[in-house]
Amino acid sequence: MIHDDLDKGREIAARVEAFVRETIIPYEKDTRADAHGPTEELVAEMRDKAREAGLLTPHIGADGSHLSHRATALVLQASGVSPLGPVALNVMAPDEGNIYMLGRVANEAQKARFLAPLVAGTARSAFFMTEPAADGGAGADPSMIQTTAVQDGDHWVINGRKAFITGAVGAKVGIIMARTDAGDGKVAATMFLVDLPDPAIQLERVLDTIDSSMPGGHSILKIENLRVPADQILGEPHQGFKYAQVRLSPARLTHCMRWLGSCRRAHEIASAYAVKRQAFGKPLIDHEGVGFMLADNLIELKQAELMIDWCAGVLDTGVLGTAESSMAKVAVSEALFRIADRCVQVLGGTGVSGDTVVEQIFREVRAFRIYDGPTEVHKWSLAKKIKRETLAAPH
């Protein structure tokens, strides 16, 4: 059940932002937040505090109901005031997107086993879709999926390799996407729910990446003869590509929400610096080269907010909104990168140091331009839509 309640969203968002600023921002210097993300110990400690404040998984009610996408946008933007905020509040990727998909596709038994601990914040999850480029596997093009699942009685046997799997280290719930044969000669995929860790899923390595906000980092893993009972198929067999869109369209938008909050924080820091820092006889902000950058930030922050709200409104109508989420992903991720880049520039040497959180926000937003579909793939998809609709239109 989704209810449209912007007033409720505003109330929760205000509480979330106060909590993140007062309780979570001090953790940004904690040594338990390392290059591969916050450790399990730190995650548990922050979530305990969010739970005590009544703010864990705040967009989902005790009865399982969700705030509307528009109201959720307010909450997730507030959580993003710190890169650690979404993790602390249990609204970070990949869990937030996995929770959303399981809530819409999983059966009741699967919800009790796999979804409930995710909502409670006592377990993390991983979404096993992307594969190593060296294997010719699926990346931006999921139809290239190489991992296979073959039925063997009342089980399925999965083999393959997966790459850039966020949060796999330390996760308790896995959603594995594998190629299956529907008998019609077309490429099909099926999603499987698995308990983690499993000896048939072997960690090859955790990648060193420029972003560092997600627990468990991003891993390459080998799946070798993993046996999964048929009752752990998510939804229907051979419908994995459809379910991926159920997950990815809203997930692209929730990424936009969280990182908009972070870029607002970066802009705050850069603005405060520009007002106080003197150069050539006056504050930096009084130099047009700096003041205009901050003005551009203000404009693009508002544009990003409006784009998110528009796309969220489309999703709230019940329309999948693939094209809309692609437009939002491109517009917002590119705008936020420009904003973060300007903040680094305004701060000068301080901007490339760890003295403020701005350099991390810059790194995180740079990665955001790639994950959940790089800008170029979304533009290509939109161009195909333009061609299709133009050719179908009367002339």
TrEMBL record:
The keyword NAD does not apply. InterPro entries: Acyl-CoA_dehydrogenase, Acyl-CoA_Oxase/DH_mid-dom, Acyl-CoA_Oxase/DH_mid-dom_sf, AcylCo_DH-like_C, AcylCo_DH/oxidase_C, AcylCoA_DH/ox_N, AcylCoA_DH/ox_N_sf, AcylCoA_DH/oxidase_NM_dom_sf. Keywords: FAD, Flavoprotein, Oxidoreductase. Pfam families: Acyl-CoA_dh_1, Acyl-CoA_dh_M, Acyl-CoA_dh_N. Residues 239-385 form the Acyl-CoA dehydrogenase/oxidase C-terminal domain. Residues 10-121 form the Acyl-CoA dehydrogenase/oxidase N-terminal domain. Residues 126-208 form the Acyl-CoA oxidase/dehydrogenase middle domain. Its cofactor is FAD. Homodimer. PANTHER family: ACYL-COA DEHYDROGENASE FAMILY MEMBER 11, MEDIUM-CHAIN SPECIFIC ACYL-COA DEHYDROGENASE, MITOCHONDRIAL-RELATED. Belongs to the acyl-CoA dehydrogenase family. This is Acyl-CoA dehydrogenase family protein. It comes from Brevundimonas guildfordensis. The lineage of its organism: Bacteria, Pseudomonadati, Pseudomonadota, Alphaproteobacteria, Caulobacterales.
